[in-house]
């Protein structure tokens, strides 16, 4: 994922705009997961949690999956190692991405690279 953070200035008289780039950051796909969700799942796995624990966590987080999907996701989580994600994702009425943590961790965490 390539994230561009910028200030936009509009000149309404000239009908032009200008972008002042603040940050350009590349996030490898393994790091694009939600920070709090992966943190919670990693803690469950550290405490030797089982499939039922993972399904309960997925359900509590209100992820947009049904029971079958939650069960399949839990199996996949238990079979494949997770890496800590660094995005903040809100699934309230629409999916939104917040990128403050990624800006802070760029160049510090493997897989989050400051491009400029």
The outline comes out as elongated
Count of DSSP strands: 5
Global structural class:
alpha+beta
Kindly report the oligomeric state of this protein.
Answer: single chain
How would you state the average pLDDT, rounded?
91
Sequence of strands across the biggest β-sheet: 1-2-5
Flag low-confidence runs: none
GO molecular function: type II site-specific deoxyribonuclease activity
EC number: 3.1.21.4
Keywords: Hydrolase
Protein name: Type-2 restriction enzyme NspV
What does the model show?
By secondary structure, the chain is an alpha+beta fold. The chain has a domain of 80 residues. Helices cover 35% and strands 27% of the residues. It is built from four helices and five strands; from the N terminus they run ββαααββαβ. The strands form two sheets. It has a three-stranded antiparallel sheet. A two-stranded antiparallel sheet has the order 3-4. A hairpin with a 4-residue loop joins strand 1 and strand 2. The model has no long low-confidence stretch (mean pLDDT 91).
Index terms:
5 strands, Type-2 restriction enzyme NspV, 116 residues, hydrolase, two-stranded antiparallel sheet, alpha+beta, single chain, type II site-specific deoxyribonuclease activity, 27% strand
Task: Itemize the secondary structure elements and their pairings.
Elements: E1 2-11, E2 16-27, H1 35-46, H2 51-60, H3 67-79, E3 88-90, E4 96-98, H4 100-105, E5 112-114
Antiparallel strand pairs: 1-2, 2-5, 3-4
């Amino acid at each position: 994922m390539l994230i561009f953070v910028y200030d936009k200035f509009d000149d309404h008289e000239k009908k032009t705009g200008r972008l002042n780039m603040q940050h350009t950051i590349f996030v490898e796909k393994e790091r694009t997961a939600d920070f709090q969700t992966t943190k919670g799942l990693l803690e469950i796995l550290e405490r030797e949690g089982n499939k039922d624990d993972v399904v309960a966590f997925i359900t509590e987080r209100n992820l947009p999956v049904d029971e079958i999907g939650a069960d399949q996701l839990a199996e996949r989580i238990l079979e494949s190692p997770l890496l800590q994600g660094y995005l903040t994702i809100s699934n309230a009425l629409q999916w939104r991405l917040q990128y403050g943590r990624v800006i802070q961790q760029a160049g510090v965490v493997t897989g989050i690279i400051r491009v400029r």
